[in-house]
Structure formats: C-alpha cells, structure tokens
User: Fold these one by one.
Assistant:
Number 1:
Amino acid sequence: MKVAKFGGSSLSSAQQLVKVGNIIQHDPKIRYVVVSAPGKRSEDDYKVTDRLIDLAIAHKNQMDIEPIISDIIGRYRSMAQELKLDFGLIERLEQTLRQYIDTFSNNYPRLLDALKSCGEDFNAQLITEYFNQLGVDARYLSPLEAGILVTDEAANAQLLDESYDLIGKWRNHDQLLVIPGFFGYSKAGNIVTFPRGGSDITGAIITRGVAADIYENFTDLSYIYSAHPKMVENPHPISEITYREMRELAYAGFTIFHDEALEPLYQVNIPVMIKDTNHPEIEGTKIVVQRSDVKEFPIIGISSDEGFTSITLRKYLLNRQLGYTSRLLQIFERQRISIEHVPTGIDNITVVFRTRQLTGPSQLAEILNEIEEKLQPEWMNVEDDLAILVVVGEGMRDGIGIAHKATTALMNENVNILMINQGGSQISLFIGIKIKNQEAAIRSMYEQYFGETK
Ligand code: ASP
C-alpha cells in the first residue's frame, strides 16, 4: 500500500492533472494522495502559494485585493474548465477565500496561514472531483478529519504525536483519500501551516500514520543527482541514498525533498521513492535506511551553499583555558545568532554562521567588540563571503583517501581552503572557500569522486 504525494509542478495545469490521473488509474496500490498547491506552469509564472501570500499582504496594506483574488481563482477555474468539472466548486472556493479574509481581518498571522492553506486545500477538492469523473472512487479528506494535529505557532506547525493514532483510523478505508498538504489544525481549532515546501511533511505524516509500505514523492525530476545539474553537466543519477545522507545534503541545497519530512519515516523505516510525474515508468531515487552500493559509491553527493561568515580567533594556550569556548558561544546566543560549525585548533577556534541572521553590519561590529572585551584574543579574522562545500557519503566512515580527493580537486583549481571540518556524523566533510571559487571547486571535486563512473 502506498501514499503518493504530488508537488506543485505536477499539479500546475489541467495537462499535468491528466498525467496524475493516469498514474492513479494504473497503480491500485496508491490509496492516499497528498497534494501541493498549483506551482509554476513556466519560468515566469507564479506559484499559487506565493499569490496567496501577496493577497494577505495586500489586504493588510489596504490595497486592492480583487485582481489577486481573480488570479488565484482563475488558476482553479481554468483547470476546472479544461477538465470539464462542475463550476459550483469554483464558487465555493471563492466564498471560502473571502470568508477567511473577513474572519481574520484583524489577525494577520492567522489570516496568512488560513490563506496559505487554500492553495493545497482547493487543489485537493478539485482533484477529488477530477478523480471521481475518471471513475476512481475518491474522497477529499481535510487535515482536520484526517487527524493532523499540530502546535499553534503560525507558519511553523510541529506535529503532535497523538496524530498518528488518529490518522491510523483511516488505514483500511476503501476509497482513495485525497488530502491537502502543507497544514494541520491546532487544538484551539486554528489552521497552522508547516514551513514552506511542507506538503512533503504531510505526505510523510500520512505515510507513517496509515503504516504504508512506500511513500512516493512525485516531482518533475526523475532522480536526485550527485551534484546540481546547473553546476555539473549530466551528473550521476542516484539510485539509493540513505536518510542520513539526504539530511546532510539537504542542509546544503538539495531541496528536492523537505528535510523535516525525513524524520517521521526514518523512525519507522519506510522507504521514500522520488518519482517523476512526467516519466512515472522511471524507477527514481529510493531513500532508505541502508544502501547496498556503499563500496561502489562511498560518496553519494557533493553540494555547496553560500552566505556564511566565519570569525576565527587565536589565543595562546587556549586549549587549557576552562570555559573559553563556552563564553564565546554565549556571545552568539545572546546576539541570537545560531551557529553552523565550530572547528577548533590547539590555539584557535572558528565560529561559522549564516550571514543573513545579522540584523546589519553594526551587529557584526558589536559581536567582535564583545569578543575582544570578554575573551581578549591575540588575533582575530573575519571572512564574510564564505561558501561551504559539502561532501557526503556513508563510505566516508571506513574509506581511506576521501578527504585527499577533495583537497586534490581544490589544489588543481588553485582554491584556498579557509576551513575544513569533518562532521561528527562521519559521513560528511565541510570545506569553507571563497564564494567566487564555488563552481570550479564543485566541478573539480565531482571529477575526482564521480569522473570514472560517468
Ligand atoms: N505550497 C507550499 C509552498 O509553496 C507547500 C508545498 O508546495 O509543499 O511552499
């Protein structure tokens, strides 16, 4: 028994919905369908969720909301028209939208969450009608009925554990259940959304709740690749990747599957298949607890992310000073800066964080002053244009010469390493370099790790 989740690009138009209908009709094992909001139909199109956010902002700023409402409803209307569905549905959807605006007019965070939920909620209702028209016995199931109970913090829903028992009650339902992704309900009865891209999270929660055998996550990519196709030509398609590897790569930009969606499944060991709506016949990438090809591919992927700042300080005999590191980290905590890496040496220590957390250049100056004052380092250095390369693979733990390949690749490209850190998990290696060297570094590292397997 399977749960299938379809992403925004798979549901962006009537043409895409026809493909989804085909997949459902040909695979009777799919018993639950979780849907995203309609995504972009072309490069310069908009996602419905983004337009719903525009709507909330426009309402707050007392601007004209009518053109935005007509854009949003227009997306559903044109799909209904092409699929020859009943227009009564579209009228009901518009009424719901207007009703949310009235109800939450004076409570912006709640209005925003209620409107954001409409993207998936309307899509689930429309798709259910379409499936029924195809002759598939389908039923729309709202997250409230399904039992998706979450915490009450707007835009940052966290699942309450009791949900799994409630969802489990739907395990042997004989109709195909269509559930909107991206939101749940708090005990106070509020609609609360997951972080952006959160329909994957709903899919994972349903999969675990009904104890499905497989979670199929349909997007517009046939595989997860070993490096970003924008940086490396024809990268190696991954057939199996472990949950831990996926998590580490998601950290640095592998966003094809939401990292918060891994946790519910990892705990119960249910595999995830990454599938392509446009090519469902392709097997795709399987996310598993243990993969069988670690010998052949000790490294599974290479990624990078930019926008980091590092502060390095040196003080003689630092290693013998009790509490030095703790005092340093407390400065960052007080400044509300969350830290990504802390590589240390004998007499030095580096703190790496995401630059976007700084409220402005004066906050960096404040941090540096406080470090000067409280820790009196002999020397301090700031790098504010850092990119971090991430090399990930289960084979790193027992493999020899893995770091050597990375450093050789960087030497070949004349790239200076500013920081190097092997993650505590022993399946990842983080290397800090200047942003300008990023692409050359990734290409050269890809050659080292995957060149001979291309
Ligand atoms: N529609 C939501 C978003 O764009 C959630 C999702 O698509 O997964 O973030």
Number 2:
Amino acid sequence: MKIGVLALQGDFEEHIGMLTQLGIQAEEVRLANQLDLLDGLIIPGGESTTIGKLAVDFGLLKPIQDFGQDHPIWGTCAGAILLSKETHRSQPLLGLMDITVERNAFGRQLDSFEADLEMGPPLDTSESSDPYHAIFIRAPIIESVQKDARALLTLPDGRIIAAQQRHLLATSFHPELTNDDRFHRYFVTLIEKPKA
Ligand code: GLN
C-alpha cells in the first residue's frame, strides 16, 4: 500500500512521518501522474486558499477530483476545507464531499485550542477507548453534512469536527500533530475495504 500526501503547502511532512511510523509507504505528491501509483491521498493542514491556488497552478485539481471518485482521500483542517462543496467564500475547491464548512469558525479569541473527545466505533473498536486529544488551529467547523456524508466525531456541544462520505474523510483538527495514530489507522481501513 502506498499513500500520497499532497505537498504543495502545509504540514505534509508530519503526515509522512506518521504513515512511516505505521510502516506504510508514503510519498510527497506534487505532480498529477504520481496519483496513478497511489492507493490513497492525504491533503494536509495549511492554508486552504494557498493549497487550492497551487493545485490549480500545478494542474492537480481535476486529477485529484478524478482520483477521489474511487480512491480514499482524507483532508485535515485546510484539507477538509478543500474536500468540501461549500465554504461561503470564493476559493478553488475539490468539492468532493457533500459538506458545508465554515472556515476559522472558532474566531480570533480561540485561534488554537485542544480538546479531549470521546472516541467510540468505528474510529476505535477497543473495549475501553482512551479519549482522543484533538488539536485545532484556526480550524473550520463542518457546519452541515448532506446526502450520504455523515458526522463521525462531534464536540460536546454537537458541532461536527469529523465527517465521512464513503471513502472520503474530513477532520477539522490535526491528528498528524499528535502521537495518536488512530485516525491514520482508520484511514488505512478505508483503503483496505473492498470497493462497493
Ligand atoms: N484556517 C485555515 C484555512 O482556512 C486552515 C488552518 C489549518 O489548516 N490549520 O485554510
């Protein structure tokens, strides 16, 4: 199995490090033809407008949209924004997931924060799962999920911070900045799943 990490801007190196620790072959992706040899793709955190513009300049937007039709893609933070259909702003998007996202939803007061969250199935199937320590940095909220997109993890107040639509995954926080590899392992299960 080989997973690519879009390496135009943002914290792609941390994702590569996490995948490597899991014993998975990982590759920085900057060219469309690299997608041909990948089983899945991660779009990292960073600045979604910058990543989007660079993806357009590098001729990657359409190839990633095509790749996402039948391959797992996971977007963290800015990556989740890029996967969404709607952000209430004008910016290049992949529009692969039927989710509406509000950028920088926590405002200036709460630029960054961390939260311990309950994590049950399907993310953690062990009998007593430890709380998940989520790191938010100028994070978006997944305002709503539509069609067959569904909420996967919420804050205690009900706001959605992770969503899944078949083989597509969006998290508004940064699992790659922790030592907790449960989200990376969950993404791997999406790749291993036989295609419907
Ligand atoms: N605020 C950024 C954006 O709107 C995302 C921040 C992040 O990826 N940590 O693109």
